[in-house]
Specification:
about 400 residues, six-stranded mixed sheet, Transferase(Phosphotransferase), domain 1, protein serine/threonine kinase activity, ATP binding, three-stranded antiparallel sheet, Phosphorylase Kinase, domain 1, 15 strands, alpha+beta, single chain, ATP-binding
């Protein structure tokens, strides 16, 4: 994945060496600010010219000189820890928006009245620092209306914090399964807008970002909703950059059970198709209101696609629709969403569409392609064969879970 650097080794190895050098200087009483800035400079210098332009801000912080030279300012900034303590009322529990394996997210308000969300990493370690750096790097390089924007970051002492715009309608999961689920705020029109927006954000990562980016953790809790219920794909801590010409990267499995593509869960091979699979699961979740995994017994769970596929084969789309919609949806759109979702979430990676194709299908731009959906081989088999299509295994036992390296995954 990484090109060779002078003196042998890889870029990633170079980063680790520099970071341990920083830690050593810290232990000897070296200036903490200097060691951190050296690390950031070395890290971003390996990213590319686009982010290299930000290095003077990291190293010197001489903003007035930059303005005088007429250089473009980045759309984010470095926050002080004191500033974020003040904004979040010292990270008060009442300000907490959510919590996960990474740490906690807090609501805050800056001196100018603007609202922010602050992700505070739970444990300081070299591993957490790398995930922090990866997320800041990727957020700094991408700009799209359906990707959560970076407002800034803070790295002081052992604190690692990332600052975003606050999303007043929280996450998709809160409306499907959480605190807002009983309010039925997601009518069908909003669900279609969310589906298309999230698809466009992921398509940007796969096809327009340079280099291409795979998210690796597409799920309902990572799709945030702004004041107009527009989708914002978030949480890039597990994301990977795909070098030009590479078909995949082999990596430790990370993500959420129920959303993981089988080839990634079992072999650790990640590429854009893995995100397509996860998005298919997300689409089914959005259409049906069901969770990605259904518990059948103490030791067995069934995936949402295993539940939906036989119904789709029998054209029983009404039985798939979320009951909270009370039948108020466009039947043709529901059918289209379910078929797209199942094609995305099929076990054979080479038969999944690209995200650009998914966007086109969701928008209904190509009538010919839409008419071909039901003719897909996935749906022409009988329900019994559909269960076994592609030798898929959608019934997940506790034994299989341990084989999928669940100790490295976040809980759903």
């Amino acid at each position: 994945m990484w090109k060779k650097v002078k003196g042998g080794g890889t870029d990633s190895e170079c980063i680790r060496w520099r970071w341990s050098f920083s830690l050593k200087r810290r232990k000897k009483g070296g200036r903490r600010r200097l060691s951190l800035h050296i690390w950031i400079f070395v890290y971003v210098s390996l990213i590319g010219e686009k982010v290299m332009a930000f290095c003077p801000m990291f190293c010197c912080g001489n903003v007035s000189d930059r303005k005088a030279r007429g250089k473009k300012q980045p759309p984010w900034r470095v926050f002080s820890l004191k500033e974020l303590h003040s904004a979040t009322n010292n990270f008060n529990y009442d300000n907490k928006l959510g919590e996960g394996g990474f740490g906690s997210v807090y609501w805050g308000q800056l001196w100018d009245g603007s609202q922010i969300a602050v992700k505070r990493l739970k444990v300081w370690s070299s591993k957490a620092d790398m995930e922090f750096a990866v997320e800041v790097e990727i957020l700094a390089r991408v700009r799209h209306k359906n990707l959560l924007s970076l407002r800034g970051y803070c790295a002081e002492g052992q604190e690692r914090l990332i600052v975003y715009d606050y999303m007043p309608n929280l996450s998709l999961v809160s409306h499907l399964h959480g605190q807002h689920s009983a309010e039925s705020l997601l009518d069908w029109k909003r669900r279609m807008i969310i589906a298309i927006g999230a698809a466009e954000g992921i398509a940007y990562l796969h096809h327009q970002a340079t280099p291409h980016i795979i998210h690796r953790d597409i799920k309902a809790s990572n799709v945030l909703l702004d004041s107009d219920f527009q989708a914002q794909v978030a949480d890039f801590g597990f994301a990977k950059l795909i070098p030009d010409g590479a078909t995949h990267v082999t990596t430790r499995v990370k993500g959420t059970l129920g959303y993981l593509a089988p080839e990634y869960a079992m072999l650790g091979k990640a590429n854009e198709s893995c995100d397509v699979y996860s998005f298919g699961v997300l689409l089914l979740e959005l259409a049906s209101g069901r969770k990605p995994l259904e518990k059948l017994s103490n030791a067995v769970k069934r995936t949402i696609s295993d539940w939906a596929l036989p119904l789709a084969c029998e054209k029983k789309f009404r039985e798939i629709a979320d009951s909270r919609l009370n039948g108020d949806y466009v039947e043709e759109e529901l059918r289209r969403v379910v078929l797209i979702a199942l094609i995305c979430a099929q076990s054979q990676a080479e038969k999944r569409p690209t995200m650009l194709e998914v966007v086109e299908l969701l928008k209904g731009d190509s009538k010919d392609k839409i008419s071909q959906l039901e003719a897909n081989e996935l749906f022409i088999s009988s329900v019994t064969v559909g269960h076994d299509h592609g030798s898929r295994s959608d019934i997940i036992s506790e034994e299989n879970q341990s084989k999928h390296q669940l100790e490295h995954m976040k809980s759903a």
